[in-house]
Please model this.
Amino acid sequence: MASLVNADITEIRQASAGLAGAGFLPGALGAALLGGAAAIGFAMGSWEQFVHAYLLAVMYVTSLGVGGLFFVLAHHLTGGRWGTTVRRLAEITAGTLAVSFAMYLLILVLGVLAGSDALYPWVNPDMFVGDQIMESKRPYLDPTWFTIRSCVYYVIWIAMAWTMLGLSTRQDSSEPTKRARAMQWYAGPMMPIFALSLNFASFDWMMTLEPHWFSTMFGVYFFAGSFEGFLAWLILLCVVLQGRGVLTQSVTTEHYHDLAKLMFAFVVFWGYIAFSQYMLIWYAAIPEETLWYDIRQHGVWPFWGLALAAGHLLVPFLGFMSKAVRRNKQLMLFWACWMLAMHWIDLAYVILPQVRAEGSVAVTIVLGLIATAGALGVFLWAWMSGAAGKWLLPVQDPRLPIALSYHNH
Amino acid sequence: MATADIPAGYVPGKLGSVPEPWIDPPWIEGDNDFRSVTDKVCRIAENPRPPVAWFIGFVFAASLAGMLGAMIGYLIITGVGVWGNQNSVSWGFPIVNFVFWVGIGHAGTLISAILFLFRQHWRTSINRFAEAMTIFAVVCAGTFPGIHIGRVWFAYYLFPIPDTRLYMWPQFRSPLLWDVFAVGTYATVSLLFWYMGMIPDLATLRDRARHPIRRMAYGILSVGWIGSATQWRIYEKAYALLAALATPLVLSVHTIVSFDFAVSQLPGWHTTIFPPYFVAGAVFSGFGMVLTLMIPAREWFGLKDIVTMRHIDCMCKIIIATGSMVGFAYLTEFFIAWYGGNPYEQFAFINRAFGPTWWAYWTMVTCNVISPQLFWFGFVRRNPMLIFIISIFVNIGMWFERYVIILSLERTFIPGSWQSFVPTWIDLGMLVGSFGLFFTLFLLFCRFLPIVAMSEVKQVMAHVDGNPHLPGKAAAAH
Model:
């Protein structure tokens, strides 16, 4: 394998500057789909369904960016090596958080600041009246304070993602060793900040959809799903890029194998977290806690829960347990798409059952699908314009030779 | 890999001399080759007269273990009233000690299973040591629930024995029963893993043994190992399989232990983050104990070339990671207790931090969350004395963590039932005695078994092809 380092480079390693323009099509299509979903929601009198669907869409693309940020931070903090070949792809993914923030701002405007309680019931001050539990949460669930917090989370993440991306791209042209050290240095303080902000962001954005409900595990649950979703996205991205002649030599079977192993680990970790949260709440049967699962035990949602248990844990657990599967690019492409779909089902299970308005659940789900497709279009545009003109590999990183010649044993 | 792995200007034994942190130095330092590693490790078990410090340590530890035995005898004859347990705090020291010791064992399992799967080569110098700790910690842990059931002669009730005369089956919905299975599985797999990994090294001791009794004893233990290619192939396969099997055990055991508390409706106990938080805490405490034992052991047994400052550095980093996770959980718990709006839950947390036993809470926070943060600084991670002191803090902090959880029982829903917990001298004696038991077993291990996995260390040495310290390799490196 070591010969790869000295082999003639026939792969494409740099994205063309025109990629941003090429991304306009999916971006425009995505924006149109989001607009279409809003129009359908408005026309059918399903505004509440739409805002939930929109939150789902934004959370989905945000989770991929957050997963990318975690990958970058963990890579530097642990002195990672094999990850060097895909590090730039992760950095660009983390960089899309700025666009996710732009999409999220609409939630703040429509869902929080406009005074409509279609998304968050606590926006309505009547909710606090005569409810002792809610009364104690009033200072926290305040629209202005909530807005400040939400913006702070995004600003922190974008600052971290851009710092890393900036250092990394500058590393391509000058002082690679110094930059590598700098990234490793920054990763230290960034990690605890990342952990705390993600924890509170998931409490704010998704846990407060049901204002009475609480679970200390919720932040970890969102993190586990997000990172697993990101890994699936990264595998998908590598396969698609390699189909276009990009990084065909640098990203080897060994890297797929390791990404797949990590994804396998997080499939199990997600299952562990999801089960523990459910089991403890079911066992203790405390009303403020069980009410969240109670909502999900009516209508179509029990089937979603079972679909998650099977599709997000048991089936993939058996599906890519084998080394032969994890080293097979085409099969891993299938599993990456599968896990991305499951990650959507997971977030939909968290967000969509909170729609209180009467009406068909099918409408909510269809709106969720359209909105997510739209947000993914915008996300794709953000990714492509973020990548435009950049090296897709940290070409000067001192760890690159080790990563390129790396093999599992 | 080859020569790229040996940085220019690298001085063996000098941590800061490695120019780039992402380049592996040779994990074994000094002028060592395969033979000198074998000699250094085997000498510890072969030396006819162990160091005086060993004798002093052994006599001291064995006396404490004997005291534990005597106290258990007294407990069985007299009854569980000899403990400070009472109506409110019905689980006192026994459960605290149980959880503490089970947690200690987790470093061994993490090192042998998860770090193996993560290809962390630094594990090879410390895995045997940590795995042995796991076994001895589980022995200490298992003692406490065993004697806590009151009528120890009915301990077999815990097992689902199909007996119609018993008219009694274990309560399968109780996490205490799940503990029996979780800890039982853990002990079994850990023991297998430890023993199987030791077979090639036991064979080395057998081959070097001069006295016939020694040769026979090591011969029986090494089950006919001759180091043939077939044996190695089967061995490697079995090792990887056991590592994969032990990986879920790193999570499952302390998850079940956390269920003991978290399935209840008790404020301060029922919180969903308990499972991963307990697992992180267990690994944290385990690494604390590995450092506590390793730092003096490498000094006394002359293992500084094999367990280098770089190994210690890696362990310190694991301590920062897991200590920070534990701190994250404390914060989340506290926040959700407030956010949840349940006044009982809120009281439980305020009471922990500012109630009569505030000192226990802040001892826990200082030792577990604040002290490991010192490891962010390189100079702390290079100072064995400081590391040793912090590792002691970690041990203290993690014992207090469980103690703080137990103290939630002092003040529950009805103020009329509030009662302060005061440990008796038996409680304290048994805690100290359990350390005696642990150290007795540990010192015996150091005396008779290979405390470093020689065969695995050699694989790491051979793996670094350009290691200038291997005979015949010096030319290739330069």
In short: Chain A has one domain: 2-404.
